[in-house]
Amino acid sequence: MRTQRLLGAGFCALTLAQSLAAPAPAAPAPAAPAPTPQAGGTLNVGLYAQPATLDPAGRSGDAGSQAVLYAVYDPLIDIQRDGSYHSALATSVERSPDSRRWTVTLRQGVRFHDGTPFNAQAVAAHFKRLADPDTRCTCLPTVQAITAIETPASDTVVFRLASGWASFPAQVLGASFAFIPSPTAVAAAGADYGIRPVGTGPFKLVQFTRGDRIVVERNAAYWRAGLPHLERIVFRPLPDEQTRLQSLRAGDIDLMQTINPLQAEQARAAGLQARINIGLGSQMVVLDHSRAPFSDPRVRRALALAVNREAFVKLMTNGICRPGQGPLGEGSPYDGQAPWPGYDPKTARELLAAYGKPVAFELLTLASPEGRKQAEILQRMWRAVGVQARLAPLDLPQLIDRVLVKKNFEAATWVAQEYPDPDGLFEGFHSRGRFNYMRYANPQLDALLELARVNADPKVRLESYQQANRILAEDAPVIFLMRKIGAIIHKPSVRNVPPAQWAGVQIFRATEIWLQK
């Protein structure tokens, strides 16, 4: 059967036509020679939260966990912001014409930190573990699409799917749950694997003391020659934003994460360096559709209409960020000019009057200064149209447990991750989507997302996603607030800090970072 090769040893372009049609760029002016990286040293990092687990099969989607995961593990493929993907542990990905069979060729000669060979058997073992309900991975609905995994050679894995899936690489092979752990370490550590992880990445774990620090050291046998440059990284969870910034100014840490862009301005004024990242995603409010009042679309739409996003952005970021409007990226051709609710408190009051009952609920939010601030702004805006929201601040593990694991909430402030491919809508809004903790269900939307998922025809996908987005705008299943924003702040001596990946505005990779002495 004919197959289509999507990924080579270098990178995957969006389309062959684009690469052929693009004119040759003008010769750039000679650049100043880059400084030679210096080897060694310890990078002290202030994380915005305590990582919940370092097991890719666990609840490791927060930015604190992801920063450490990218130090300990390598991805199979590296998804880029434009939807293309680079090779990593996988050197090629080929699909059958019906997109039901995906053949992945793996990099040879790679070993896990414990000496176990990285091979097809390790990849297959991990995906079978993800598909085991006892693992309790939030990815279970996603990996259940895989009906069989074959390992015809030590460097070849074949995934067979129940139906065609055009964006399988982006949604599965490039996901954080697809970081491959050592099967030897998983078997030996059992339930403790989340604090004793073993990957193939640039650094290996040497210490995990919950609430204090996570220490990783250079992997001398790393498959990327000459990397990493750092000898050691000490990750310290510092949940309070001002404490993190003060620690950086005092020299106790060298680099920090933040979701507060105003801190980036403060840091620059103090002679530090900062990169503000506006990501593919939105800060939003998620609502539980299985209970009143949010089972009624009039209430959901009224709450959305009561939020002045321009004012919200100004109060939260001094206008640095942009309002969020819908689940697709700005300028996306899949948007379909969807009529998402704007600011209209008059119509909000009319909808609430038509609902005819008092609207009061508990709003979960992150117990940080920024989390409390955004919740208080929303509380005031909703009070202005007669809605009462009781604020319930929680630390990050508690918030994740209530919303993502137990689905025990009425409303919660949240951060939505968008994907370069609009198939991400399936995970967030399909009734079986792994991130549909709102229990939102619309059969018409389900049918459109299923059609677009299995169909590789660009025209069919475009029309399906445009129609799906219009349905979402009408249903208002969540309330979008502003684009996802964050920053990495560091000392000038920390060099070669890479830009944030599409998946996270606070996630950084330390592989090529070095310290100027």
TrEMBL record:
Keyword Cell membrane attached:
no
Gene3D superfamilies xrefs? Dipeptide-binding Protein, Domain 3, Periplasmic binding protein-like II
Q: Cite the GO molecular-function annotations of the record.
A: peptide transmembrane transporter activity
* Signal sequence, renumbered to the chain: 1-21
Which BP terms from GO are recorded? Answer: peptide transport
Write out the entry's keywords from A to Z.
Signal
Against SUPFAM superfamilies, the record matches this protein to: Periplasmic binding protein-like II
Q: Name one Pfam family in it.
A: SBP_bac_5
Q: GO cellular component annotations, sorted alphabetically?
A: ATP-binding cassette (ABC) transporter complex; outer membrane-bounded periplasmic space
PANTHER family listed in its UniProt record: D,D-DIPEPTIDE-BINDING PERIPLASMIC PROTEIN DDPA-RELATED, PERIPLASMIC BINDING COMPONENT OF ABC TRANSPORTER
Q: Which family does it belong to?
A: Belongs to the bacterial solute-binding protein 5 family.
- Put simply, this protein is called Extracellular solute-binding protein, family 5
